Structures are given as C-alpha cells and as structure tokens.
Amino acid sequence: GAVVSQHPSWVICKSGTSVKIECRSLDFQATTMFWYRQFPKQSLMLMATSNEGSKATYEQGVEKDKFLINHASLTLSTLTVTSAHPEDSSFYICSATPVGSYEQYFGPGTRLTVT
Amino acid sequence: AQSVTQLDSHVSVSEGTPVLLRCNYSSSYSPSLFWYVQHPNKGLQLLLKYTSAATLVKGINGFEAEFKKSETSFHLTKPSAHMSDAAEYFCVVSKPGGYNKLIFGAGTRLAVHP
Q1: At B61, is the secondary structure helix, strand, or coil?
Q2: Less Cβ around it within 10 Å: N or C end of chain A?
Q3: Given phi > 0 = left and psi -120 to 50 = alpha, else beta, which region is A27?
Q4: B45-48: long-range pairs with CB below 8 Å, 24+
Q5: Average pLDDT, whole number, for chain B?
Q6: Which pLDDT does position B98 carry in this prediction?
Q7: B96/B104 Cα distance (integer angstroms)
Q8: Could you say which residues from 54 to 83 on chain A have a Cβ atom under 8 Å away from some Cβ of chain B?
Q9: Is the CB of residue B97 less than 8 Å away from at least one CB of chain A?
C-alpha cells in the first residue's frame, strides 16, 4: 500500500519550453503533497508544499512563477517547470501524505534534462 | 533551526559484515528522526523513525538506530550486510507532529562487496 507514482520518469525538453510532471497517489487519498529537488550526488531540498484545493506554499528562494504547482484532487499534484533553462535540469521527487497521517510516501522521481 | 550531518559520504563493506552509517543532528527541541533509503529508479523508502518513544528503534530489513541525546546522534546499524543493501541512505530530521518539513542530510552511499 501507499504507492506514489510520477510521470514521466525521464523527460528531455528544449530551453524555453515548459514541461509538466505528474505525481499520483495510487491507493490512498493525499491531503498534502510535497515537491523536492535533488541535484546529482546531493540531498533533497524541499521546493513547495501543496494542499488539495489551495495554493502551494513555496520555500524561500523557489520561484513560484517558474515552478507552478497544482493540487487539483486528492490523488494528483502537478509541477510545471515554465520556460525551462539548462540550470533547471535536475531530479524532481514528490511525496504524498495520506489523509489522517503525517508520514510522507515518496515517488520514484522524474529526471528533467533541459538542452 | 534544525540540521543533520551525515559523517560519511561513502561507506564500503563486505557482504556479511556489520554496517554503521553515522548521523548527527542539531535541533533546538526534541526532534523526530528518520532514516530513508534510496535505490536507483525507486522512491525513497522509510527504514525507521524515532518519535520520542524507545531510544533504540528497529526498522525494516534488519536495520536499527539508536537515539543518543547526549551525543546528538542517530546512527544506523545492521549486523550483517547483504548485497541488496547497496543504496543511498538519508538521515532526516523534523519537528515532531504535524506537517513539518523534513530536513535531509547529504546522504551516505553504501557499497557492499562480495
């Protein structure tokens, strides 16, 4: 139980284009989802926290107009990287918290490469 | 403010020998502490967590960790390493209770040799 999926697992896009990453909780409803960024051989950094039906809360230094987060349902959150640049290339990981729980379950991650 | 320091970026052991991954934390209050494992192409998996109950915490796959407040440490151990234990391990700290941020350590890559 408590499986989180991400789609796509790997995406290449050209500089200046936008790319959307989906995070789904497959067998539970998630009131809260989190988005993390992981640089090569480095740790995870929290980007934002999203609650279903409300605006995401972004961490200091994260551009909310560049990283658009939508949490439209209890099983789906999306992260859109707008006007992507090579420095946005990274591994993006989401996590989801089941209703009534504080534990985070992590997705497998999405590797974004911007050329 | 909270932080975690994983003292080794790489640890290499032989199969069947003990594993020790070291973690020190800094927190102005009694924290919740976690160990997560990350295998390639798989999501982070929770190994174990400490939330102010027993100081010796047993987790999955034979791993355990001991919370030592006097040493501000939460080291992860396993008596006998398996090849399948090779992965990246993260020590994580959080404020207890509620939707609080997880603060990740830099990670320790564990290699297991035959």
Answers
A1: helix
A2: N
A3: alpha
A4: B45/A106, B46/A103, B47/B76, B47/B89, B48/B76
A5: 91
A6: 57
A7: 15
A8: none
A9: yes
Q: Quick check: A106 and B90 CB within 8 A?
A: no
CA-based nearest residue to B91, from B57, B59, B48: B48
Alpha carbon B102 to chain centroid, angstroms: 13
What's the CA gap between B57 and B66, in Å, rounded?
6
What is the number of residues in chain B?
114
Q: Which residues contact A27 (CB under 8 A, 6 or more apart)?
A: A1, A2, A3
Residue among A4, A46, A109 minimizing CB distance to B101: A46
Q: Is the pLDDT of residue B1 over 80?
A: no
Give the gap in angstroms from C-alpha A42 to the nearest C-alpha of chain B: 6
Tell whether B52 lies on the interface with A, counting CB pairs under 8 A. no
pLDDT tier at B2 (50, 70, 90 boundaries)?
confident
Whether the pLDDT of residue B97 is over 80: the answer is: no
> What is the CA angle B60-B43-A49, rounded to 5?
110
Cα–Cα distance, B20 to A49 (Å, whole number) = 33
Question: Would you say B104 and B44 are in contact if contact means Cβ atoms under 8 Å apart?
Answer: no
